[in-house]
Write a structure and sequence with these properties.
This is Photosynthesis system II assembly factor Ycf48/Hcf136-like domain-containing protein. With about 375 residues, the protein is mostly beta strands. It is built from two helices and 29 strands. The chain is about 5% helix and about 45% strand.
Length: about 375
């Protein structure tokens, strides 16, 4: 169903309302608490910020937050790249030094977004220019655009998702062509997009109207779309929303889909689906990290929908998701809900960096 995209007050109200309403469900994955080993957890700054994305570029950790884009300079010190008024919805690295960010003026959980913009930097974030673009198609009026929720880059070609649309740009975000769906849909929004390893398929997902989960695959070569929404919905507590789609580094047919309520998987490119890590607490899982050094090792961490402090909980599997161990940080007064994850090797050991909801960035070491 199509609505006038620029009935702005109604659209923003519905958008915020759909984000704010969550139900309850059942089905679970067994998780054992492990108090025998203590992970080392240390804050490395940006306290109070919502950290949506973490990336290591040229050896430096970068964080996309609700108060701008930052580069870690040393220890707990960070350099602001751009404007602190930008809420970074997503951030794409086109090539060396060339970045594009999608922004709004507020996080819908704690504010009321009214403006969506794109900015470009050609020098690793030192200088920025606003991009004049047409993401939103025929619905753009008075400079108001459809939000560009997620982007993925392939050979400088940009793919992005909005409310219920997949679009592509060959000129770094200026002009967009619809690949799947349509502009101005009545939907909470698509929150994830990824390309298959052979770059022929686009996987995308999120949440549609009335909290319906969305998980689809669009073939770039055949121009057709397969819908896996019902299969995914059957494995997760309802309602749910797809938050990330990842491929295993060891098997190009192994897909992992992170969502509200847990993580599901397909080992054959989407033909069949199983639970990978599912709980009945309606925690949100924005990412999962496979250990590229150790096949079968996976790390994830979630967020319980709340603007209050909550414990930091990290879940680890050493047997490809068959069993999980839960590690709960002893300090339950922090903002421990995890919105983003990345990892790197430091001093020959794997280290996790977690971006928190209003808790900045923490470093986790001494992993089992």
């Amino acid at each position: 169903m199509r609505l006038d995209y620029f009935n702005t007050n109604i659209r923003l109200y519905l958008f915020t309302l759909l984000l704010a309403i969550y139900g309850c469900g059942s089905s679970s994955t067994d998780t054992n608490n492990d108090n025998s080993q203590k992970l080392t957890v240390r804050s490395v700054g940006l306290n109070g910020l919502i950290v949506y994305k973490l990336e290591v570029i040229d050896g430096s950790l970068h964080a996309a937050t609700d108060k701008g884009l930052y580069r870690q300079t040393s220890g707990n010190s960070w350099e602001l790249l751009g404007d602190s008024s930008w809420r970074i919805i997503d951030w794409a690295v086109i090539n060396s030094g060339h970045w594009i960010i999608s922004t709004s003026d507020a996080d819908p959980l704690v504010g009321n977004p009214t403006r969506y913009e794109l900015y470009e930097s050609l020098d690793n974030g030192k200088l920025w220019q606003k991009i004049v673009h047409n993401f939103g198609g025929e619905h753009i009026e008075q400079g108001n655009h459809e939000p560009l929720f997620k982007m993925v880059v392939e050979n400088s070609y940009l793919y992005g998702v909005g409310f219920d649309v997949v679009a592509s740009s060959s000129d770094h975000g200026r002009n967009w062509e619809v690949i799947d769906g349509f502009w101005g849909a009545f939907s909470t929004g698509l929150r994830s997009i990824t390309l298959s390893s052979d770059k022929t398929d686009i996987w995308y997902g999120g949440q549609g109207a009335l909290e319906s989960l969305v998980l689809r695959k669009h073939s770039l070569t055949q121009g057709r779309t397969l819908d896996f929404s019902l299969a995914a919905t059957a494995l997760l507590p309802a309602p749910s929303v797809v938050l990330a789609i990842r491929y295993s580094p060891f098997d190009e047919q192994h897909l992992l889909v992170c969502a509200e309520g847990g993580i599901i998987q397909s080992k054959n490119g989407g033909n069949d689906w199983q639970r990978f890590f599912v709980n009945n607490e309606h925690r949100f899982y924005f990412d999962v990290i496979p250990d590229s050094e150790n096949e079968g090792h996976f790390y994830t961490a979630g967020w319980t929908k709340s603007i209050a402090p909550q414990p930091l909980i990290i879940d680890i599997s050493h047997d490809a998701g068959k069993t999980w161990k839960k590690y709960t940080h002893s300090d339950n007064t922090i903002y421990g809900g995890v919105f983003s994850m990345t990892s790197r090797i430091e001093n020959n050991q794997k280290v996790l960096y977690l971006g928190l909801f209003q808790g900045g960035v923490v470093r986790v070491s001494d992993l089992p």
